[in-house]
Amino acid sequence: MFVAFLAAIAAAPAPAATSQPPVSAAQPDSPAMVEALGLLDDQGFEEETLKTAEMTLELMLGTMLEKVQKMSTEEIPEEFIKELRELLHDHQQQALRANMVSIKRQAAAIYAKEFSRDELARLRELGRDPVMVKARVPNKTITPQLMVLGAREMKATEPELEAKIERLVSQHLTKKAKGADHS
Predict the structure, then answer these.
(1) Which of 112, 121, 164, 171 is 20 to 30 Å from the Cα of 25, by its Cα?
(2) Cα-flanking dihedrals φ and ψ of residue 25, to 5°?
(3) What is d(CA 147, CA 62) in angstroms, rounded to the nearest whole number?
């Protein structure tokens, strides 16, 4: 069963990209964009993006492996889990690093759209406040703990969500069957 599941994963098509078009690197920077890029630099955007992605990957991998194990009659080999984790980690890090300039510019464009240059300058000023600087250090350990809280609470509601999805699928199939009967 585990081997069959692995074969199904390998044969599954890659999910379609669902992002907005990237911000052009050749696009001239508005004053707000320049300030937004500075804000992201001040906040350690690149390092934080990589860390957040890593935490998300671990949560996703744990959920995925748990679901595979429930569907399988065989124990998932530890060596496979180790290799899968390594493969996902390496791919994610490589993809993010290769696209970080674009990702950062897109993030800055979001800030520049939502805040004026003066507001962004004020945010940067607030970010340099000694208390804010001090708060960033514990946040590096607090944020992962908070993410786990959310994931744990969502996990507790999985049976409810699965039942809702099953009802939705059943309703959809019933509607589809009724539509086919009328043709």
Answers:
(1) 121
(2) -65, -25
(3) 14
Distance in angstroms (rounded) separating the CA atoms of residues 56 and 50: 10
Tokens of 63: 């959920």
Q: How far apart are CA 22 and CA 103, in angstroms?
A: 8
Q: pLDDT band for position 153 (50/70/90)?
A: confident
For residues 83 and 12, the answer to whether their CB atoms sit within 8 Å is no
Asked if 121 contacts 35 with a C-beta cutoff of 8 angstroms, the reply is yes
| Residues 105 and 25: beta-carbon distance below 8 Å | yes
Please check whether residue 117 is in contact with residue 32, taking contact to mean a CB–CB distance below 8 angstroms: yes
In this prediction, residues 27-33 reach a mean pLDDT of 82
Which token pair is 118? 């003066």
Cβ neighbour number for residue 55 with a 10 Å cutoff: 15
Neighbours of 34 (CB within 10 A): 14
Residue 160 tokens, joined: 């409810």
pTM: 0.65
Please tell me the distance from the alpha carbon of residue 124 to that of residue 65, in angstroms, as a whole number: 41
